[in-house]
Amino acid sequence: MDSCVIPLRHGGLSLVQTTDFFYPLVEDPYMMGRIACANVLSDLYAMGITECDNMLMLLSVSQKMNEKERERAMPLLMRGFRDAAEEGGTSVTGGQTVVNPWIIVGGVASVVCQPSEFIMPDGAVPGDVLVLTKPLGTQVAVNAHQWLDQPERWNKIKLVVSKEEVKEAYQEAMFSMATLNRTAAGLMHKFQAHAGTDVTGFGLLGHANNLAAQQRSEVSFVIHNLPIIAKMAAISKACGNLFNLIQGTSAETSGGLLVCLPREQAAKFCSEMKSQGSGFGGQGAAGGAWIIGIVEKGDRRARIIDKPRIIEVPPRGSPAANQDNKSNPEPELQLGCYY
């Protein structure tokens, strides 16, 4: 499970708790703080929990930073974490700060709740539909942005993407990672989700496999569609599949929720995600959801079909995104590719 569920001695309540931390991956310390907080909270949201009672922050300050750099960056990082926590309806009441060779940022999220407030991730049945609530490709976008200043790396991808497209993808990845999965967690209850997890370091296929292995029923997950930040699939291919993005093992940070929903509810879930979700930084890719596969009878494993459909997700604010928001087909039409 994404979070531990500890039954308490008092009246049918459970403590649900999680912790997570990682190293910085974007240049903006404020946004890095928001991303770290969103990443911690995602473990609660993956179980359909929408509230958090308390957060602690874990922060490692690098020995390699001089005093001026520390005084500039660390308060911004802490403010970003705190602001995201407040957006999630909770607060940061403590934590721990240490000095270390590397910057590390993360935290702990805790909530006391009743059984009706969380969805155990083991109820998928044959006929369910798989939905993903954020596009893939964050690792590729972040790396490609770093390569803008590395000619030997940039030369490998410059034929498939422009510098402007890389910058737009990096901004989209940053805003997507900073967006809370709270809306999706609430909709899991509304549309009777049977199981869910969040997509992070093991990539889509890794987390899909983890979720499939937890199911009570003998089921398998088959993934047909891959929503990916625009141009990131082309970059991955140009690098000789360095990231294994199409294979589903490219690491994501603070990715979306992968949710198993009844077939008749999946399109409604996607439509409501699109109408409710603006995401951090404005309407864009993070404000949607995509039907990506099906649940069938099987051996509790997940797989991606040989030639999955790549859904190019345009970065928010781009002309393509504005056009997509006007003309995007209803999600139920996309189900036809499975049958």
From TrEMBL:
Record-annotated PurM-like N-terminal domain positions: 2-106
Which residues belong to the signal peptide in this entry?
none
Enzyme Commission designation: 2.7.9.3
GO cellular component terms, semicolon-separated: cytoplasm
Record SUPFAM superfamilies: PurM C-terminal domain-like, PurM N-terminal domain-like
Alphabetically sorted, this entry's keywords are: ATP-binding, Kinase, Nucleotide-binding, Selenium, Transferase
Which residue ranges does the record annotate as region Disordered? 313-332
- What are the GO MF terms of this UniProt record? ATP binding; selenide, water dikinase activity
| PANTHER family tied to this protein | SELENIDE, WATER DIKINASE, SELENIDE, WATER DIKINASE 2
The UniProt function text for this chain reads: Synthesizes selenophosphate from selenide and ATP.
Designated name of the protein? selenide, water dikinase
This chain's source organism reads Gadus morhua (Atlantic cod)
Taxonomic path? Eukaryota, Metazoa, Chordata, Craniata, Vertebrata
